[in-house]
Design goal:
The chain contains 14 helices and 16 strands.
Length: 475
Amino acid sequence: MPNPILIIHGWSDNYHSFEPLKQLLKSQNTASTISDIWLGDYESMQDDLSFDDLAQGMQERIDDLVSQHKISLSPYSLDIIVHSTGGPVVRTWLSHYLFDVCKGDLTQCPVRHLIMLAPANFGSRLAAQGKSALAKLFKGGLENGFQTGRTILEGLELGSPFSWALAERDLFSGKKLYPCEAEKGPFVFILSGTETYSKLKGLVAKGASEPGSDGTIRAASASLDSIKLEINYNETTKAHIIAVTQHNDAPVFKLLEGLNHSTIVPDAEANQQHPTLAIIKDCLAVKNATEHQQLRFKYLRENNALYQKPGFVNRYQQVIVRVQDNLKNAVVDYRLDFHVINDECAPSSWQKQDIPTQLEKYANYTAEMIDTVISDVHKHSVDGSYRTFFINIDAYEALINELNSVEGKPYIAMNLDAMPPIPGVSYRTDDFKYAPLNRLFSNNTGKHFFKENTTTLIDITLQLTVANNIFNLIA
């Protein structure tokens, strides 16, 4: 007997958009009767509503259905399909259910398959624009009291404190949630379109025609195949670096050529030949971790074949950086940039006046890094300690190949300067002057740092230092 299926929509949408998918799944015999497929419908345009509110609402409505004996929360008795914002909504609900309701007993997980269509797991470049005056007029409108879901949009913004905290809860908790049990689930599947919207729409909504995205969500932002690097500079010695890897299995990740953020969801004109349907059928057929891994490798080969096609989009990675001091205060005024240097111009041997001259040696390669490798940088609109870098992996590999043939063995170095928050209070950043990327990360991650279709978290802790004119002890 197939599991009941819950389908959860995204921001500014409603359940009506998923009635065609429901009917197609029913006719595909994925579910035995129409009552086995439930469409979620939640408020996403109210400014003060949070993801926690939505997760609690989801739990209460599921409890209602359980009390009516219409569905069950028995272990692995539900399948869930989400679109866009529905991804973080369901992840918030599931982590809340497992850790708070079930008190950490992961064997009580009610989800067997979690299928994500273009999920906003690590945000969208368009979210910050959703709070604009134009968005309030055209998206909010009189019907919504000119509200656009400000709190949710702040969580959907690239590199948000919300998405970081959610990742720490379900990806880096130290427990294995995906799957909780290898033979039972939940098995995670992520589908991402490769087609953007028109260039005209991209002029109006920055990012709607961004390569590496589906017009709304970057493939790298949809992915949950992440690692986290903790770089601690709060000691007098050199940086202490820890690579935090997941206990979770890597999700199945599938690129869908020619589909954008909207068309990945079958509409009223769609039929059984819609490519998303075949993928959903494959995902729902997975019965254990071995089959999940087999499907992951199958789709990985297909993704790699797409990248080999002439004229196909480049590969991209997303890197989110958070900077705090040793007291866990946000460091919001900092500059993180990249330069190409070599050991002969090691910063430790520089005098201040020599820095511009030293950096000039490989200035053309530094310019290439800035212009072609780093495609976009986003500072979170509410908490500036979070920055998101969008990395063109193909351009990065091309630059590395160039540097390997250049005399002097140059490399890419990362530099961080944090501005003092007030006079007499500053941050110790001397050890972060032009730190070589390859030496920072290559021996600490357990895997290659640069990898397409991933989001990597870098958590930097700086030592706060206070001058004696601020606080002193006098004999």
